[in-house]
Amino acid sequence: MSAIAPKFKLSEFIKSLLDNAFWTVLLASLIGLPAIQVVLFYIEMPVINGELLTPFLALTWLADPTRSLPILKAFMATDMFRVMVFPGFGFAALIAAGTIFIERKMLAKLQLRVGPFYCGKIEGILQLMGDGLKLISKEIIIPAKADKPIFWAAPVIFVATAAAFVALIPVAPGWVVADVDLGLLAVFAVIGFFPIVTILSAWSANSKFPFIGGIRALFQMVSFEIPLILSLLGVVILTGTLNLSEIAASQTNFPWIVFLPVGAIVFFITMLAELERIPFDLPEAESEIVAGWLTEFSGMMYGLVQLGTYLKLYAFAGLFVVLFLGGWNGPMVVPPFPEELLTGVQVGPLTVGPFPGLPLFDQEMLNGTLWFVLKTVGVIFFILLPRGVFPRIRIDMLLSLGWTKLIGLAFVNIFIALGLLYAGVLGPGGLQ
Amino acid sequence: MTDIMPPGLALKKVDERIMTLNVGPQHPGSGHMRIVVQIDGDYIVACDPDPGYVHRGEEKMAEYRNYITNVPHLERPVIHDSCNVLYPYVLGAEEILGIEVPERAKYVRVICSELNRCIYTMYWLAIYGIFLGHSTMFMWPAGDRELLIDLMEKVSGARVTHAHFIPGGVRNDLPANFEDVCLRQVNYFEKRIKEYAAVFYDNPILISRTRDTGVLTRENAIRYGTTGSVLRASGVDYDLRVKAPYDVYEELDVHTNVLKEGDSYARSKVPWLDMMESCNIIRQALQKMPKSGSVRTKLKPNPKTKGPATVYKRVESGRGSLGCYIVSDGKTEPYRVKMSVPSFRNLLAMPNLLIGEKLGNMPSVYWSLNYWPVEADR
């Protein structure tokens, strides 16, 4: 503990707090209050519901749930909310952050260590925040001979591509950012973009180790895209649609992994390779090529690439859940919304409510999200697990695995799907 | 200009297809050295190991210190194996100074030497694991090593740089109750390293990666002058503890582990088998050790030699046979101390093993040679 703040004194700490409070009050009263007065003097405030809107009234409304809930609900219906918060970037980034923390703790337990421990007092829960702050505060170093515009743009494009992938994953019925009819095709298109970003960043760094890493990543991703696409064809044949929401909805009775286990295994292995996870982390093999295509990235550029990597991991796990594990389908475990809240509940001497804006989310959506998140976390766990067990494999072994064994197995999977279809066991509508 | 430059720095006109990689000294896949590797696609076409980055002039330093004060700095080349590194020097100095070593001290030396062999090998194994991307195999040996480091700390007072062997015996007697603690920790340690087979040595990916890579045949192993685990992995039954026993090794039953394949996998497995053999030796030594007695022949602070003499002693260290050649001209300081280190001999085999291999095999072949850069540079 003493190492954190060696010259810590409580009196000085309180003094600094009082100083801060003093300056805040001083600046607010000298600048803030006159500004408000000026605004009130010159701008005519609107009249809403027979009341003149004053700053005081606006603040009161914020604290009044009957006023603020409808606004929140209206905001939640917008596309902006979907893109930024719930099925989109914010939700995915939250799961990605959780993944990083769980990975570090789980790997530590596997290796008889403690992992992140001190930051945030409780089991190092704030370690990620500390790492992020460190990355932001670090200097970004660009190699002198780098192709600078592309080198700067590459991490951003990488995160954008990963976010585009996230946007295609349906989380709950109706809750998806981009509900396109050719959703699976769009997924393939987005996945096909990753090698381009990788080779762009590797080439623009103009350095030997990123170049070798980029070429390896290109080899790996391109050769594993084919078994990836082939392994998903079985699901498409059985469901007769490319829309991911419809594929998830078609698994109300049973997930496709029951009938297409071969396809699921092939997809899982190709997923590990596409994600550059151990045992397929050749593009970042540190004992051979330092950090592969990430070698020249520093500071927040590296942080962005890491964020993109984990967004991609979440998206792949979500895709596996949607295609093979039944997506949001699961037994209803979320209790129904208590209707009394709409009219008001008597709790002792107090009357709580009424809250006309509620419920914010319906029961089906909450249940779907719960099952989707549970299944996704399970898949992520299995993606993380090989890191503690396997060493890295070699590029020639990887390519022979992809081109011979996995493609063969993917075709076996397609034949199983066709057999099920023509034998009349299953059809586009599900179990016949 | 290029004529006077050292070979690694000379600019050479090469084919457009060939890419020259400087692996090291600032590289996670090299030790404190540089390997200049030329690759054609994924194949290594030329390999030029360039040691000398951590040269410290230990041999020259030894000429300015007397036989006792040489002890702490001569162990520096391999601090993880510090007892074994000092061992040949101490044996030679004893012969030059003409002193006898008490029986109990010889057994203490054997115990410390075997403990240090395990400590070194665990460190080596941890790095071998992380070189292959196996992070569990990095953490487990690094953690289990602590068991033996604790034992050595009880014996000598220092965790790694023990400076425990001195001409005339060992510095201190064993602490009270050491036999029981040592037996318990060593038994647990042996049980623990046997578990490594499940996660590492029997791992199908590891086997498929390291089998038949960097094959060193029996003839080549002898011709290049390799030693230690590298030699034994190529099918040569050569262990100085058996072939030329020193101190009390002839009274102990030492089994030599020999594998015939000569590939990276065999070279990585022999040190692991040797660790189990070390545990056996420690148990035997604890049993046969005289329970009491002196551990040190007293010497004056600046001991005098008997006269001009030369002596060459060698021991089996964690990496192979380690020799020390001492020339005395009758003064209190040695005239010359020359160490014949196993690391450097094993390194000589590396270019021949790496040429024609894939770049992905470089870490596994390089580190399986049981090479310690600091010892080669000394």
Description:
The complex is a heterodimer of chains A (432) and B (378). By secondary structure, chain A is mainly alpha-helical. Chain A has a domain at 143-333 and 354-431. Helices cover 62% and strands 3% of the residues of chain A. Chain A has helices at residues 10-42, 55-63, 65-76, 79-84, 89-110, 127-137, 148-167, 183-191, 194-205, 208-239, 244-249, 261-274, 286-289, 300-324, 340-343, 363-384, 395-422; strands spanning 47-48, 51-52, 345-347, 350-352, 426-427, 430-431. In chain A, the strands form 3 sheets. In chain A, strands 1-2 form a two-stranded antiparallel ribbon. Chain A has a two-stranded antiparallel ribbon with strand order 3-4. In chain A, helix 7 runs parallel beside helix 14 (300-324). Chain A starts with 9 loop residues before the first helix and ends with a strand. The mean pLDDT of chain A is 84. Chain B has a single domain, classed as Cytochrome-c3 Hydrogenase, chain B. Chain B has helices spanning 58-61, 71-74, 82-97, 103-131, 135-156, 178-194, 196-201, 204-210, 218-223, 229-233, 240-243, 264-288, 342-348, 350-354, 362-368, 373-377; strands at residues 18-23, 34-40, 43-50, 165-166, 169-170, 308-316, 321-329, 336-340. Chain B has 378 residues and is an alpha+beta fold. The A-B interface holds A 107, 110-113, 208-209, 212, 278-279, 281-282, 285-290, 387-397 and B 19, 21, 27-29, 42, 129-140, 143, 199-200, 203, 205-206, 208-209, 358-363.
Task: Give a quick rundown of the structure.
The complex is a heterodimer of chains A (432) and B (378). With 432 residues, chain A is mainly α. Chain A is built from 17 helices and six strands.
Helix proportion of residues of chain B, in percent? 40-55%
By CATH, the superfamily of chain B comes out as Cytochrome-c3 Hydrogenase, chain B
Report the uncertain regions of chain A.
none
Q: What number is the mean pLDDT of chain B?
A: 86
CATH architecture descriptor name of chain B: Orthogonal Bundle
For the largest beta-sheet of chain A, the strand count, sense and barrel status come to:
2 strands, antiparallel
Roughly what fraction of the amino acids of chain B lie in strands? 5-15%
Number of strands of chain A: 6
